[in-house]
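fyi for ur records
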Amino acid sequence: MVLGIDDTERLFSISGAVLALVIAVYLIPTRLTKNSWITDTAKAKGTTCPSGYTYHASQCTKQVLTHPSYWLPQFLVTLIIGLVMLAFAYRRKRAGVAFCALLLGLSTSSFIGLLSFLFLLLGGWLIVRAFRLQKFGDPTFKGSNARAREMAKAKKEGRALDPTPTTGNKSGSKSGSKSGSKSGSKSGAKSTTRPSTPAPSKRYTPKQQPRKR
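which gave:
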């Protein structure tokens, strides 16, 4: 399950892929069909700005007119990665989804700002859950912390710890006891209802007389 994703992770992964596709579609009418203005920033030296920039709110800014060809590579990258991420999420591939999410977070930061942080958060969340699942057997924060405390306590006491998580042991013992009781009851029922072997017949059978020639 480390390489795969559960239902919750799959839901968030599909949502992230859909968000990337929505961003790509948004670029079509706003950036790809006409020239558009964007705000470019530069670092200020005190209160002095480079040529063409104006000083405002502790930074240097200027308006830049962009051609649709400027946005075409970003549109294609966002669209392709979003489709690939959706395919990985559908097939429950953790590594593929995490890689696409991190790539989207880095490639879209220049034009969607803080919204790109959601993709970075999704990719990091999937990686952290994979680490917890591999090390502690539980991807959740609460379950992995409980398992870590059990491991630390066992190490301090110098005893071996069951490699399976506590939750798994409980479920396993319950299922084992249930299956054992069911199998025992079934075998008991079979043994009680099994028919006994017939008793030998007490009727006397006379010996046959030899035939006269």
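Residues 42 and 60 are 5 Å apart (CA to CA). thats all i got for now
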